[in-house]
Every structure is written in C-alpha cells, then in structure tokens.
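Risk mitigation, structural track. In case the binding assays with 6-O-phosphono-beta-D-glucopyranose fail to produce interpretable data, a predicted complex structure has been prepared as a fallback.
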Amino acid sequence: LAADGAVFFIFGATGDLARRKLFPALYSLYKEGKLGEKFAVVGLARRPRTHEQFREDVLESIREFCRYKAEEGQAWREFADRFSYQSLDIGSVEGMRRLKENTEELESRYRIPGNRLFYLALAPELFGTVSRNLRDGGLLDSEGWHRLIIEKPFGYDYPSAESLNEEIRQVFRENEVFRIDHYLGKEMVQNIEVLRFANSFFEPLWNSNYIANVQITLAETVGVEERGAYYNKSGALRDMVQNHMLQMLTMIAMEPPSRLDPEDIRDEKVKALRSIRGFGSEAEVGERVVRAQYSEGASRGQPIKGYREEDSVPGDSATETFFAARLFVDNFRWAGVPFYVRTGKRLPVKSTEIVVEFKNVPSGILFARKQELRPNLLVIRVNPMEGIYIKINAKKPGNDMTVQPVAMEFCQSCQIGINTPEAYERLIYDAARGDHTYFTRWDELAVAWKLVDPIAAAWKKGTDDLRFYPAGSWGPKEAEKLLEDDGFFWWPVN
Ligand code: BG6
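Fallback model:
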C-alpha cells in the first residue's frame, strides 16, 4: 500500500466502532509505516463537527485504545492533518457530490491516485443506499480502485442477507466487497492454518480416526452494555454463532487448500461449511442446541442484573444470551466427530479457546491398574491470551509407573515486547492491499445463514426450551449435558 496510497472513508465516524477500533488501527498502521505518505482519512457522519473537533476525537480514541502511545506535538500534527470531517446525510446525492469534490482536492494535495476505500461502520439497512449514492455522487468515477468494507450483521437471515447483497452488488463487484468478521483477523485464528498444515505432529492425526471431539468456547464477561436494542433482535445466534463461531469451526475443519491463495482457501471453507449437518426438524434443534438467557447473578462479589433488566430490553424478552450446540461435519474426514460450540454473555471469564481432544490409546492394558488415562489435548488460546498448549501423558517422577498429564505451553502473549497487530488493523491493511483471504465471501455467508435460519425458525415456535442461568455462571446444565450424553465434558477454560 505504501506505494499506492488511498483515501479512507469512515462512514459512522462518530460511532463506537470508529472510536474503539478503526482510528486506533489506522494510527498503528501509520506508526508502522504501512500507510506510506499518500493517504488521507475522511470521517463521515450526520452530526456537525469541525475538522479540529474531529481530530480531537481521533486523538482521544488513540490515547484510550491504541497499542501505540499517542504522540503529541509535530508528530501528531502530521498524522492529524490527514484527517478531515464532513457532515453528511447519506441519503443525499448532493452531499456525495460535495464529498467527491473534497476528495479530489485531498487526492491532488497528497498525490493519491484515486484509490478509495469506503468503510461502512453503519447499520446494514443503510449499505444499499450508501452504495447507490456513492455511485450517483460520482465517487466511483476516479481512476484507481474502489473497495467497500462492511461490518456485520450482514442481514438478519438468509433472505434479508441476499437482498442486501443484491443491493450492494448493483454497485460493487464481489471482489470489491470486503465483509468483515473480525475473528478472522485474530492472530491465533490465522495461526490455525499454520498449526495444522505445517506440523507433522498434527496433520496426520487431524481426522475422525484420532480426534474424539472439538470444543470451541467463546466466553464473555460483559453483558449487552448499551447495545440492548441491537442485541435483543440479534441474540447470540446472530451476533456470534452465524459468524465468529462458524468461522473458527471452519478453520479447524476445512481441507488443506491446494495453494494459500484467497480463493482456494475460501473454496475449502465453503465446502466445510456445506458439510455441516443441517437442522432438518424442530426436534433436532431441541436435541442438539441449547439456548439460555442470564438472570440476576454476581461476579467477584458484585451483583449483576438480569438480561431482562438491561436498558432497551423488554421485560419478557426471549432473546438468548447463551448458545451451545453439538454440530457435525458430515464428510469423510470428520464422520462422527462432535464439534461442541458454546458462547455467552455474563460468563465467568473472557476467553476464547479451541480444544481438540484426541482419542485415548487402548486403555486398561498397560497402565490401567490404578489409573484412568487422560486424553491428549491441543488447546488453541485465541483471546485474550494468545498461545497454544498440548496436554500429554508422562511418568510421574518416582518409583511406580504412575502416569500424569503434563502441559507443554507456548504462550505467545506472555512474550515480552511482543506487540501483535489488532484484528482490525490487519483487516484494514489487507483490504487496502486487496487481499480477500480473511474476509467472508458471499457464498460462505449464504451457507452460514442457511445453517442458522432453521434454528431461529424452531425457536420462534415457542420458548419452552429457553433456559436461564445466573449471570457469572457457565450457563445452564443442559449445555453440560450435550457432552455428557456422548461421554465427554467441557474442558475447563482458562
Ligand atoms: C462482536 C459482537 O462481533 O464481537 C459482540 O457483536 C462481542 O457482542 C464481540 O462482544 C466480541 O469480540 P472480541 O474480539 O472482544 O472477543
């Protein structure tokens, strides 16, 4: 990118995502020299704001959220000068025309060759209007490339996602659209490919002959904060499962691509997603899926209110804040191996981990006299700790042949001085370079929606299966039972 240069347009520039993630990401990229000399950032939102006020907002966000310390003085000025703000009614083509003129001025001032990256940190209902008005306002007429980054949720179900996609595709080609799933920008999620395909330790064992089950946990301690209105419509199924959870599962389950090219990788991901066993009936949903909502509870001695007491949440809401399921990838490699997934708000820890549990060696022959062997585990720690560890069995020092599980750990985030890029930083950089690898292709998204839609449909029929769990606990006992019925249990998450 440093050679090309681009103008970055942040729609929704006064919003939470811009403040927490996008401005800090741009600053880190700048600090690392990845933005080069030819760049400018235009913040867009309805609210009136001067350029200077906007730069103050950006500085504040960097101070609070960036992994690089905000510099003051001249160094800051040089960066901040590249930021400008325009108050914009996105429904107005006239406003877009003004934006076009401002942009051309920036491009000639910084010698930017017409490359334009539009980041829509907006509600999805607006994607279509913005796309059309960008075109009608002449913003797509410049010489360079034009790319659109859009945030989830991409629709509410398959039909709404499809019509949203059609609206966008009237203006942008598929290879100009970058659909963000920020989990794909995480270091350890990207590392799954390397762990799997660069280690003869794991690769030959990566199938139903040797793997007993896979467990994916995405636990959060937060509740719904100020997002009650959004969350109550979406729930854990649409907020986390349809995207982040399925993406992680797919990275574990996919076949090796023939090359590490974006389309080869995404082809394999789509194939894996298509192999996930669907939910043919409501009874199947009832058997393999657990939904629950947090009720009043406590964390570290502090009382926590229940979900129904949260702001903008109706007192009789049936929205799930917890989801667990037993999934199967019905292909040759994974036949019969359960993939257990769970995610929830107000759980005891903030942690995302993937546990691969291997099958035990024949037991009861060598060591079984007094002891039951523990299975080997490969644990990928995604967030907030980053690393991997494996659990193996070894002899306990001493005279008798006692076997004990020991852990061999690689803790990436413990290394001093390590400063891994944030997910958003990586993804914005990838989009600016035109690399689609870690973005969701339309067919991938379509399959994911088709998989979760029958679950949502079954839930709509009645709420008898909705469980409650006290805030600060690990969810309802039914989530434990999903595994117990198969002779397994959730490995404790760190
Ligand atoms: C977002 C969800 O996509 O991911 C949030 O909308 C959730 O509800 C967040 O809190 C979790 O992301 P991370 O990176 O903090 O684990």
